[in-house]
Structure formats: structure tokens, C-alpha cells
Specification:
The complex is a heterodimer of chains A (about 375) and B (about 200). Chain A has about 375 residues and is an alpha/beta fold. Helices cover about 40% and strands about 20% of the residues of chain A. Classes of the chains: A alpha/beta (about 375), B mainly alpha (about 200). Chains A and B meet through helix 1, helix 2, helix 3, helix 5 and helix 8 of A and helix 4, helix 5, helix 6, helix 7 and helix 8 of B.
């Protein structure tokens, strides 16, 4: 996040471009009153607690907003959930949160004509337009408001439609598809030109074409960083979650690969990333490290479950620790790593945490068409 | 612990638990209370010239954001004395519990609640872990108390720079109040959160 506002010309350009909106918003004093903010926030809370796809105009005078009854929220909720509140698309409320008038406006509520109508009505009333996707626009004294200065309603909707972390399993399925895209998988493997120079370095007798075919599964050196970052980037673009920076992680957990907190910052989720297959040596001139099933079961599984134990001991609200294994083995028909594991492979002290551990089905990576 | 400080914390927490009901939050999590009070403290000097009125809260850095032990103790006290109910891990203020808060404090706590209320309780966390003072402590791996009382803390410096950027760019800013700058600043932070 960029907090450098000094000599930040891009930020100043943005403010300049939004000058009219900033002036309009800060000159209209009523929306800066606590009474307005309380009522506006209450409507947002209501929308967040419901799944509505309709458009509804709520009209209320400034005087009524200034004189709302104490503890008005339950009555607001009842009014909007009532038959009339649900069936009619234009409601006038009073300070008691009673619906004093209701009407069906025949125009499309989001059309230009409707906007003109609401702007006109807002000379007598505050007009709150409750839109699908939990969005509110409002009209005051003939002006309409809704978009923020720094983000649009569409930005907000895109963010709000990201998945909650509880649905992460659906994203693992989607990620498998992502791994079959050439631009994705190619970055994990050494390039065709590298394979050609490797053939020379290894003084291999195979002809070039056969050598490339035989060694195309060779991963880059230290591919764990590439796998981890690709998975992290994919998930962070689709999940409504907070991905913790390494610096935030406690000393004992520096080696944890991906640490996420749900949007409210309450529940922890971990992903430990491993790989099986063969990588190129650091000097790029010979075969490097190989990992196989034995490196996953039991070592990686024991390690992941022990993290749950340690975090629980520190009273961290750890929900699930996943083990993600990228399988780049030459023989892709082998069964998944960690197949059919059970708690018997764990140390006694860790067994009670096995229920919070999940071995994700292997992420198969295949260099189908080397670059 | 000083009883006066605990008494002050009790009043703040009861005020928050009651006040969030106005915007439809029937209950509130302890962590949200920690975060609202932290933001109230760290932002206080942006709009006020007097000494920080929340100096009895001592926040340290945790994975869940800034944390003050006195808030946990106060909530335990209020719960055991039946001023707060716990409902599925969240807190609900019991009706008619006594709140004695001066107008400066209640006005400021309410201002922070109303700024945060636009985003919903679940999103308060995003504002605390992206708070400049907290981020600085994380980046430097500082184990010290977060210096939220100082009128020159990192967050206030960032906010002042934010305000100056407006003043240097727009034809006039006379009509923009300090609270409106705060509101705009939170919008900016949220825009960064949702664009990631």
C-alpha cells in the first residue's frame, strides 16, 4: 500500500481529476452530520444482512433523520422486511421507521429518467436508492452521490464478489485448470534453449529433439518459490482474505509458505507448499534436486500438522492447514502423494490436530509444450 | 492495574457496544473493540490539539493487529458483572448499563465508529493491519509498544501528508473538515485493499 503522499504526482493527478466530486461532497454538509451517517450506515448494515436483487427507493426528510427514534434499527429492519417493504419499490419513511407512503414507480429505477426523478424528489426528501450487490446511491438537494472518490461501485462489487476463505476448496479446483495454461506452466520448467545447452553440457548422445522430449519435465532451480508465488497470486486475486507478509509471521513460523486470515482477521488458514519431480542444478549445467513421495509422506505431512499444534499452543485460531504438492514428475500417472494417509504416521502429540489438516490433491504440472 | 484506567476502559467499551447498535450491529467482537479503540487512539491527534485522551491503552503488535491487555480485562470485568452478554463469541451490551463518558471522548469514538460503519465490522481488520504505525512496527520487527499517543506518530504524519496533497492540488480546501479528510483517507485505504 502506497502511503507516500508527498511529491506523489499520480495521487495529486487523481485528486485533481476528482475535484468536482470532492467539492460536491464536502460542500454538502448534511451528509457529514452524524444523523445522516448513522442512518446511511444502518441501511448498509441492512443490505449486508440480506440477499436482494431488486432496486428500491427510500425517501425520508432531513427532519425525520435528525429525529430518529432511539434504537431505530430493528424497526427499520421490520419495515423493509414487511410485505409492503418488499413489494413496493418506493417507500417514504418517518422518524419512527413507519412506512407512511408506498408506491410502485413504473420507470426502470436505474434509468436516466428515474435518476432525474430522484434528483427532483431529493429537493424535499433524502432519497436512498438501494441497489443490488449491497450498493447504495443517495440524492440530496438535487445532487446524486454514491461512487467513492477513490474507487467505483464496480470496483467495490468486484471485490465483494470475491470468495470468502471458507470456499477455498473451489479455488483449488479452478487452480488445476490454471496450471494447464501454457503461460502458467512454462515458467516452472527450464526453457527449450536451456535444454539445448544442457545437452551440450551433459555431452548427451541423444539427438536434440529426443533430449528435449526426455528432459522437458526438468524444473527451474528452487522451483518452490515459483510454485508458492503462483498459487499465492492466484488465490489473492480471487479470495476475500488477508495474506500475511513474512514479516508478520512469528519467528517459529518463518518457514510457513502461505498464511491467510479471513476478512475479519479472526481465523487462520495455512498452505504449506512442496513439490515432487526434478529440478536443474543451481549452475544450470546438470541435473539438480529430486523429490518424491517419500519426501512428502511422512515428512511434509508431519511438518504441516506440527504447525497446527504450535499455532494452537500460541492460542492462534488456526482453522485448517493445507499441504499443496506440485507434481512435476516425469511419470504423471503415479497416484497422488500422501494418498490414503492417516494419523498413525504422526507423533502422538500431534495426532489430535490431524482433523485440521488437509492434503490437497496434487497439482499436476506438465510441460506439454516447452517454450 | 490502575482501577481508574480500568474504569475508563469499561466506559469506553460500554459506549462502543451500545453505540454500534444504532448502525445495526447487534453484537460486536472483542477484536473489533480492540481495533476501534486502537484507531481512535492513533488518529486522535489529527483532529485534536490536546493530549491523547486514550493514553491508558498500551497497544502491542500481534498477528491479529494491535492489542491492549486492558481491553481484554475490561471485557472480562463487564461480562462478569452482567453489563455485557456473550452471544456466539460476540459481545452484546445489556440494556441500561451505565455509561459515563465526556463529550469529547464519546464524540470521537462515535466519529470513528461511523467512519468504519460504512465498511462493516468484518473489514475493520483491513484498516488496522494497514495502519502506517502498525505497518512500521511490523516492517522493523519492533517489539516495543505502538507509539499511538504521540501527535507525531507515523499515522498522523501520513494523514498530514494526505491533507497537504489536497491543499497543494485543489483550488480551495477551506470547506474540507478534518473529519472529512479522515473519511477520504479511509476510502483511499479501502480502495487499496480492494484493488489488491
Amino acid at each position: 500500500m502506497n502511503f507516500n503522499f508527498k511529491r506523489n504526482s499520480a495521487f495529486k493527478d487523481l485528486i485533481k481529476a476528482k475535484e468536482t466530486e470532492i467539492m460536491k461532497r464536502t460542500f454538502n454538509s448534511f451528509q457529514e452530520t452524524n444523523e445522516f451517517k448513522v442512518f446511511h450506515n444502518a441501511l448498509l448494515t441492512y443490505l449486508n444482512s440480506r440477499e436482494r436483487q431488486d432496486i428500491k427507493a427510500l425517501l425520508i426528510t432531513k427532519e425525520h433523520v435528525e429525529n430518529l427514534i432511539p434504537n431505530f434499527y430493528p424497526k427499520l429492519q421490520s419495515a423493509l422486511d414487511s410485505d409492503i417493504g418488499i413489494q413496493y419499490n418506493s417507500l417514504i419513511l418517518d422518524s419512527n421507521m413507519d412506512i407512511v407512503e408506498h408506491e410502485m414507480i413504473s420507470q426502470k429505477s436505474d434509468s436516466n429518467e428515474a435518476r432525474k426523478l430522484y434528483a427532483e424528489l431529493s429537493k424535499d426528501y433524502l432519497v436512498f436508492l438501494l441497489l443490488p450487490k449491497k450498493v447504495i446511491k443517495y440524492f440530496i438537494d438535487g445532487d446524486d452521490f454514491g461512487d467513492s472518490i477513490f474507487f467505483t461501485i464496480d470496483d467495490y462489487i468486484s471485490y465483494d464478489e470475491k470468495m470468502p476463505i471458507q470456499r477455498i476448496n473451489e479455488l483449488f479446483i479452478e487452480y488445476r485448470q490454471h496450471l494447464t495454461v501454457r503461460n502458467t506452466y512454462c515458467k516452472f520448467f527450464i526453457s527449450k534453449s536451456h535444454l539445448k545447452s544442457l545437452r551440450a553440457d551433459m555431452k548427451d548422445s541423444l539427438d536434440e529433439k529426443k533430449f528435449i522430449e526426455k528432459y522437458k519435465y526438468l524444473l527451474q532451480n528452487k522451483p518452490e518459490d515459483l510454485f508458492r508465488e503462483d498459487l499465492r497470486l492466484f488465490l489473492s486475486g480471487k479470495l476475500k482474505a488477508n495474506f500475511l507478509a513474512k514479516e508478520l509471521i512469528l519467528e517459529n513460523f518463518k518457514r510457513l509458505d502461505i498464511v491467510m486470515l479471513d476478512e475479519s482477521g479472526n481465523d487462520f488458514y495455512l498452505i504449506e507448499v512442496k513439490w515432487v519431480g526434478t529440478s536443474i542444478h543451481g549452475d544450470g549445467k546438470k541435473i539438480g534436486t529430486s523429490y518424491d513421495e517419500l519426501d512428502i509422506t511422512p515428512a511434509a505431512i508431519k511438518q504441516s500438522v506440527s504447525y497446527i499444534n504450535q499455532l494452537s499452543a500460541e492460542r492462534k485460531n488456526i482453522k485448517i492447514a493445507y499441504l499443496a504438492v506440485f507434481d512435476a514428475r516425469e511419470d504423471q500417472s503415479q497416484r497422488d502423494t500422501g494418498f490414503d494417509i492417516n494419523e498413525d504416521i504422526l507423533d502422538m502429540r500431534d495426532r489430535k490436530f490431524f482433523n485440521q489438516f488437509r492434503k490437497i490433491g496434487d497439482f499436476k504440472v506438465k510441460n506439454s509444450h516447452p517454450n | 492495574m490502575n482501577n481508574k484506567f480500568l474504569y475508563d476502559a469499561n466506559s469506553d467499551i460500554l459506549f462502543i457496544a451500545h453505540n454500534v447498535k444504532h448502525i445495526g450491529w447487534v453484537t460486536i467482537k472483542e477484536q473489533s473493540i480492540q481495533r476501534i479503540i486502537y484507531l481512535s487512539k492513533v488518529l486522535y491527534s489529527f483532529t485534536h490539539d490536546d493530549e491523547n485522551i486514550f493514553d491508558y491503552y498500551h497497544f502491542s503488535k500481534t498477528l491479529h493487529g494491535p492489542y491492549a491487555v486492558i481491553i481484554r480485562d475490561s471485557i472480562s470485568f463487564l461480562k462478569s458483572n452482567k453489563f455485557l452478554n456473550f452471544i456466539e463469541g460476540s459481545i452484546e451490551a445489556v440494556k441500561d448499563s451505565p455509561i459515563t463518558l465526556d463529550s469529547t471522548k464519546s464524540g470521537w469514538l462515535q466519529a470513528i465508529i461511523l467512519i468504519l460503519g460504512k465498511y462493516g465490522e468484518n473489514r475493520i481488520f483491513g484498516f488496522t493491519i494497514n495502519d502506517p504505525l502498525y505497518k512500521e512496527a511490523v516492517d522493523t520487527n519492533s517489539q516495543k509498544e505502538l507509539d499511538a499517543s504521540s501527535p507525531e506518530n507515523t499515522t498522523i504524519q501520513v494523514l498530514n501528508d494526505f491533507k497537504i496533497a489536497f491543499e497543494e492540488t485543489l483550488n480551495t480546501t477551506a470547506q474540507i473538515s478534518k473529519e472529512e479528510y479522515l473519511d477520504l483517507y479511509f476510502e483511499y485505504v479501502f480502495s487499496q485493499i480492494i484493488s489488491n
